[in-house]
Amino acid sequence: PQMTAQIGNFTFKHLFLNASGVYCRTKQNLDDLLDNQATGGIVTKSATLRSRKGNPNPRYHSILNGAGSINSMGLPNYGLQYYLDYLLSKSFDKPTILSVAGTSFDENIELLKQIQDSDYQGMTELNLSCPNVVGKPQIAYDFETTNKILTEVFKFFKKPIGVKLPPYFDLNHFDQIAKILNQFPLDHVNSINSVGNGLWIDIETESVVIKPKKGFGGIGGKMVLPTGLANVRALRERLKPSIKMIGTGGITSGKDVFAYLLCGADLVSVGTQLGIESPKIFNRLESELAAIMVEKGYTSVNEFRGKLKSLE
Ligand SMILES: C=Cc1c(C(=O)O)[nH]c(=O)[nH]c1=O
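Above: the input entities. Below: the structure tokens describing the complete assembly.
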């Protein structure tokens, strides 16, 4: 069955990406992703202008035998130039997405100016949803600032760009963010980022399990699947068709991928479970999705993408 997608001028021959931040901080990670046959494209760890060590360890913890994860990495990355060097070091047979996350308005603008002025011709993703930079709010929960940043960006940025959003939980917030995003020539929206500022407790030690932020961190994995599905569905219904959707959050099986496609996702990205299973998870997800499609008599994802039924 045909399981491909198109974002702007980029054709994805497979539907699976890594979620930014997972399995993508080093050039080796990115090569490992590329080498996997079922990988549709690669996404870099969100880059800042200069390399960052990130928050102190322990800053990641698996929850309930892998049913979830909590992280407060603190944006550790090797800096924009490292990822630009990698992306300009060779030609790629799959689309690449360079993720950036400035810790200030000015840094976001400077990051994108450097990408605009570089020879990089791939896709860019502006991460507006990092929950773990101590003292910094998640930008995309501030609608006015989001509007201001995107207005400034599109004055000079002419290359393909999308945004990574945090989960929203209020229908009015879906209306508000969609109204803002629809004003801009965005190639894609990637939803969701981790569910910010969860807390996990070890009953034995009567303690939190990660060091930064007194144990508060972004939640990922299977337990955020209902939130991810809702955000993709709500945004798909509200965003103009030219803005494509990458569905992220809690994917562990072909059924989850099928559900995201029903909600309107063009592509999907996998975080927590990729960290557990490594890139070979994409082969498993692809064969599970293919089996579901065959069983249902679908020959292409286009036959059911976005066609989730309501009960009315
Ligand atoms: C870019 C920082 C992020 C981080 C982080 O580096 O702490 N963790 C997340 O779950 N999402 C992010 O967007």
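Note for the figure: Residues 64 and 223 are 10 Å apart (CA to CA).
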